Amino acid sequence: MKIKRKHKWLLAGILLALVYWWALAGTNTSPGNFINGIPNIIDYAGRMLPPDMSIIDLLLIRVLETIQIAIIGTTIGAICALPLSFLAARNVMPKKAVYHAVRAFFDVCRGIHEIVWALLFVSMVGLGPFPGVLALGVHITGALGKYFSEAIENINPQTINAILSTGANRIQMIFHGIMPEVKSLFTGYVLYYFEHSFRAATILGLVGAGGIGLELINSIKLFKSHEVLTIILVMVITVIAIDRIGAYIRKRAIGEIQIIE
After folding, report:
1. What is the pTM of this model?
2. What pLDDT does residue 169 have?
3. What pLDDT, on a 0 to 100 scale, did the predictor assign at position 257?
């Protein structure tokens, strides 16, 4: 017996309500709990004021270290993702086993959060910025690999067929047929993920992977509330600056290769 359309919507609504009730109950999420916590929030915020400006010199060094982590991590991810993305594109890689294997590799890389990767690499190579670089590199390999391969798959098939009809091999097809079509998207993705890498790198220090996050977790552990506020302000200002600069560079780069925004 077919279920009427309105009954389907009703069942879907009931199921959605049950899912949210289950999630709210499991996380103790309620307005009452938030209201009860307001005095503690106000007390902690008061203890953070005023910010401790005496540590600015140290924080600037940590911010630069965080930028370095983001630059190298993004570069490693982009370099690894670029060649692998062609193996994960159906219109380029005819062998399904290779296609699915590379896709699965991308899923593993991007499916695990940067912090988890950082924890693993801290255990392998020790504390410092290097495990942060590796964590970002692995995660971004999966993320950019996915976006690169999907961009390749969305190319007009006639473009590829036209190149192949001239007698070109697959390598020539990639360089002369595919890359001119996708380089603008690739540029935008890489620049966007650099911005993402900096935001991610600011918290990798929480697990010992260097950067300004390391100062944040140390200040929290030592109950130095004034330093916590200073670090948060520096992080916010730097993230805003990176986002604005990255957006400007991305706009100029995309404009130079004449892509419609």
Report:
1. 0.75
2. 65
3. 42
> What pLDDT score was predicted for residue 261?
33
Find where tokens 């009860």 sit. Answer: 36
For residues 48 and 225, the answer to whether their CB atoms sit within 8 Å is: yes
| Closest residue by Cα to residue 222 from 63, 38, 40, 55 | 55
Question: Distance (Å, rounded) from C-alpha 76 to C-alpha 136?
Answer: 8
C-alpha neighbours within 13 Å on the C-beta side of residue 54: 5
Given this model, what pLDDT does residue 258 score?
41
**C-alpha–C-alpha distance, residues 78 and 3, integer Å:** 49
Distances (CA, A) of 37 to 26, 31, 40, 44: 18, 10, 5, 11
Residues of the chain with pLDDT under 50: 1, 256-261
Which pLDDT belongs to residue 2? 54
What residues does each domain of the chain span?
62-256
| Percent above pLDDT 90 for the chain | 13
pLDDT of residue 92: 76
Fold of 62-256: MetI-like fold (1.10.3720)
Q: Which pLDDT does position 254 carry in this prediction?
A: 61
Measured from the Cβ of residue 227, the count of other Cβ atoms closer than 10 Å reads: 23
